[in-house]
Design goal:
seven-stranded antiparallel sheet, globular, Alpha-Beta Plaits, Uridine Diphospho-n-acetylenolpyruvylglucosamine Reductase, domain 2, five-stranded antiparallel sheet, Uridine Diphospho-n-acetylenolpyruvylglucosamine Reductase, domain 3, alpha+beta, 479 residues
Length: 479
């Protein structure tokens, strides 16, 4: 338990507003996004400046109190959930929600950690720019969390993950010092790159308080198409053709199994199949232009490329969205895939990556291997084909009731998880593509990570956070 003396020390920093002890206000922040993990905390710390964060970190060291940084609490792996024993306090960055500067000429925005992603999107749009990263939780995910988990999303193909979009970072380190690396320097060879070390560290090495983020020109013209293909190999061939034909304007390329599309159409209201032909696999393609071109706009370029792809036998059928509403309807099918999969009943959900060239083979062979290994179970996938990220689901046998499904996973869940992760590693892939390790994957991370990498992770953690007070139980396996 955390002593009243320690709580008083935190309260002295920011006053009553900086320490929330009301159990009703704390309760919504004690569980994770998926409802899988639940913790406890005596209070939530709510700093409003980087200096207050630093002061709170120094008090935490003095009183040996662990801190769990939290933004929008949208972690998919329990990465922002406090320990169940109440040994940590939640340090919420939500009140630090100012966009300090936005410069359309430099294509930069400096945002505090609590800025919500959709708020950043709106601010960038207001000055004719955009922040080219989006995901389903954009209405609650915060900049600090996106940086700390190296978030991805649907635009990684063209713009990269947060690692590619972060130009500078301000953070508080475990000793209470402030790392002022907010300046967007193109060249900086002053030793180790703390910015890249903190990106994806899940709050275990530092608390991100602000970031300089790279903006892109606003989309002047876009085209969205839906293509039916026979298999993932054909989808990859189509992607490579579109890239060769159109260049870097191909911003999104998603692939979805036919049964997953069927789930979406059956449970998500106001959805319909974009093409009449039912195909085993589907591809969603987006082309974005930074400037208007009346002679060869986005739709014209897409139509020309798809026509040639059809002649080459790379697609079975295709449709180009005729309006922005239809384009959004196409994307709704992809963005609803996870929700539709959940509606089918209990499933083990994997967020993995493999080399892009091997992704088609993985999607087909891993599903067949799971169904052979666990009779009655079904498996399918969808994902970001262009960056090798697969969302792979293994479902309980058809007809299994909810309670029985839980029993099936209690018996087979751990084995199935190891089985799929072993397949991923055998293809030189990663068991976490964009959701992080958190607490959900920490045991598998320890089991499958090469010794050199694992030892380095532990050594860095010990060096920067010797007391282990930053986000304990996440990412870094105990030795």
């Amino acid at each position: 338990m955390i002593s009243s003396i320690a709580l008083d020390a935190f309260r002295a920093i920011a006053g009553p507003r900086g320490l929330i002890e009301d159990r009703d206000l704390i309760a919504p922040w004690l569980g994770d996004w998926r409802g899988k993990y639940h913790g406890d905390a005596a209070a939530i710390l709510t700093p409003r400046s980087t200096q207050e964060v630093a002061a709170m970190v120094r008090r935490a060291r003095e009183h040996n109190v662990a801190l769990v940084p939290q933004g929008g609490n949208t972690s998919m792996v329990g990465g922002a959930t406090p320990p169940a024993d109440g040994s940590a306090l939640i340090l919420s960055l939500r009140a630090m929600n100012q966009i300090r500067a936005i410069d359309p000429d430099a294509n930069l925005a400096v945002c505090e950690a609590g800025v919500i992603l959709s708020t950043l999107h709106d601010a960038a749009a207001a000055v004719g720019r955009r922040f080219p990263l989006s995901l389903g939780a954009k209405g609650s995910a915060t900049v600090g969390g996106l940086v700390s988990t190296n978030a991805g999303g649907t635009q990684v193909l063209r713009h990269g993950t947060m690692r590619a979009l972060v130009e500078g970072i301000e953070a508080v380190l475990p000793d209470g010092s402030i790392h002022d690396g907010i300046a967007a320097l193109k060249k900086d060879n002053r030793g180790y790159d703390l910015k890249q070390l903190l990106i994806g560290a899940e709050g275990t090495l530092g608390i991100v308080t602000a970031a300089s983020l790279r903006l892109a020109p606003a989309i002047a013209d876009r085209a969205v198409a839906w293509a039916g293909v026979n298999d993932p190999e054909q989808a990859l061939a189509l992607l490579r053709f579109m890239e060769a034909r159109l260049g870097p304007v191909v911003e999104g390329f998603e692939v979805m199994a036919g049964d997953t599309l069927g789930f979406v159409l059956s449970v998500i209201p106001d959805t319909r199949a974009p093409i009449e032909t039912r195909t085993p696999w589907n591809a969603l393609i987006e082309v974005d232009l930074d400037a208007l071109d009346e002679e060869a706009g986005a739709a014209a370029r897409m139509e020309s490329a798809l026509a040639e792809a059809f002649e080459r036998g790379l697609i079975v059928d295709a449709a180009i969205a005729a309006s922005e509403a239809q384009a959004q309807a196409f994307w709704k099918l992809r963005e609803s895939a996870s929700e539709a999969e959940r509606a089918q009943g209990p499933a083990i959900q994997f967020d993995v990556s493999v080399p892009i060239a091997d992704m088609p083979r993985f999607m087909v062979e891993a599903a067949a291997a799971c169904e052979a290994r666990f009779p009655g179970a079904t498996a399918s996938s969808f994902g970001h084909l262009g960056d090798g990220n697969v969302h792979f689901h293994v479902r309980a046998p058809a007809g299994t009731e909810a309670g029985q499904g839980a029993d099936w996973f209690a018996v087979h869940g751990a084995e199935a998880t190891r089985f799929v992760n072993d397949l991923v590693v055998s293809m030189h892939g990663s068991i976490s593509a964009e959701h992080g390790i958190g607490q959900m994957k920490i045991d598998e991370f320890a089991r499958l990570t090469p010794a050199a990498q694992l030892n380095a992770v532990r050594a860095i953690k010990r060096a920067l956070d010797p007391e282990g007070l930053f986000n304990p139980g996440k990412l870094v396996p105990l030795a």
